[in-house]
Here is the input.
Amino acid sequence: MDEILKLRNDFPILKQTIYKRNIVYFDNAATTQKPYSVINVMKEYYEKYNSNIHRGVHFLSDKMTEAYENTRIIIKKFINAKHSHEVIFTSGTTESINLVAYCFAEKYIKENDEIILTIMEHHSNIVPWQLVAQRKNAKIKVIPIDYSGNLLINELNNLITEKTKIIALTHISNVIGTINDIKKVIEIAHSNNIPVLIDGAQSIQHTKIDVQELDCDFFVFSGHKIYGPTGTGVLYGKEKWLDDFPPYKGGGDMIKSVTFENTIFNSLPLKFEAGTTNFNGIVALGTAINYLNKNNFNNIINYEEKLTNYLLMKIMELDFVKIIGLPEKRSSIVSFTLNNIHHYDAGMLLDKMDIAVRTGHHCAQPLIKSFGIDGTIRVSLAFYNTFEEIDYLCECLKKVKEYFN
Ligand code: PLP
Here is the structure.
């Protein structure tokens, strides 16, 4: 555990005092902080190697291309993809889902077809499919949850019909922390010949992902939620799907040859990386993942589990706090409400005590509504958080209660 606690020193932002004490950053589900190695590598590459990738014949371009492609290999290994060309760089989870939704629909979705989502999706995994449904006159069906926030996976058997074309669901809820049994969903889906997209925005940084073992068809995540830079993300897709997809965006790098009559598209992965990508950010994303690999990711996961259990235990001791969702398997995201105190007011007061939490609907309005509320206070942990910070949060929640009473 000492080794994990030392890692906190790698994150300069956490040494900062906003009002009176070092900031307590509990908004990790929105975005994670960056270690020195990630910050420094961005500076280093802009200072020494900045040059556009894939097209140059000079030293700088070669160097940048090599580092960019090296990240593809790092990610291939990190998620255990079969081929590195199954790793497509995007700007984040949102773009990855839009890419799949658009391309998949172009090829496979027609009028009256059905798309299955869950009620706990982030808007990023709802709206792109709604756009598809409107464009193609298709239908969206939704897997419900029970009151504890467990996904009712058995309902899938009632929802699937011969018109179901794809299932897209989050691995971990960004509001209530439920870890969905995605392996079971994938097995049921595949036994009906239906592909599955997994939104890994909240799981890639907290669990070991093995896309071959899961056998998912698509797995997407954002770089900024795994200690990397904003504007970077990944779409993993099985080769058979990505090869078959039409292109998503047209532009440089995604072509083999262009005439005014016709374009021959590039092969994977460049077919989906049109234009100048955030190559410097992608290099730094590789550095972020190397940081986790170097610092024993399994230990990090174990520590986060202990921290989460401690948070739950401490919060449950407070009789004015109501936890929203108590799923059987959960991650380090905990949402709650306070008796007669609006989540927004509580969040503002906590901020003044140097605690950063998120309040509101967390871009998951259908889920929030299903609990009959309009928002929560969300605490989302990362490995640089400490048990002392959780104690401090509970003290401050008591002060919030006193203030409003
Ligand atoms: N999916 C989930 C489950 C999320 O939590 C988020 C962001 O919070 C997203 C998708 C969207 O991620 P991004 O804004 O990085 O594209």
Remarks:
- The radius of gyration is 22 Å.
